[in-house]
Amino acid sequence: MILRLSLLAAAFAVTGCVHNSTNSALEVGSDQVQLRQIQSRAFDTTDKTKTLRTVISTLQDLGFVIDKADLELGSITATKLDGYALRMSVTVRPRNAKQLLVRANAQYQEAAVTDPAPYQSFFSSLSKSMFLTAQNVD
Asked: What is the pTM of this model?
């Protein structure tokens, strides 16, 4: 009888652990989805080269120094040294037949930035630049 109770208690303990780890995995997953939404914007254009050039200009306007740009891969890496080292990696890729998806990933000292402020600042400036570029305003 004691053996059965011990096995039953162990089974409940294991089941409880599995349930908790599943819940925490789902919570982490939802955090990642929210972060990806903060990091991504779709633009109504298919001109990847013009979009990448606009991203480079926007990063420079925000005080970033371009470390690496690969127009073929659609990726740009830049660093902002303003009392701290903020690294921003931006990728541009087709979303569908009429849009490009721009995704920014910011890091501060090897740690991912989850605060929405740097992303909002970048995308606000990029949206304005994309509009001006579309209107052929220099």
From this structure: 0.73
Confidence of residue 100 (pLDDT cuts 50, 70, 90): very high
Identify whether 11 is part of a domain. no
Neighbouring residues of 112: CB distance < 8 A, sequence distance ≥ 6: 35, 105, 106
Q: Please report whether residue 109 resides in a domain.
A: yes
Domain residues for the domain of 115 are 40-134
CA distance 75 to 58: 14
Does residue 4 lie in a domain region?
A: no
Task: Please choose, from the candidates 89, 86, 96, 60, the residue with its C-alpha nearest in 3D space to the C-alpha of residue 75.
Answer: 89
Residues recorded for the chain: 138
CATH of the domain at 121: 3.30.310.80
Confidence at residue 64, expressed as pLDDT on a 0 to 100 scale: 94
pLDDT tier for residue 82 given thresholds of 50, 70 and 90: confident
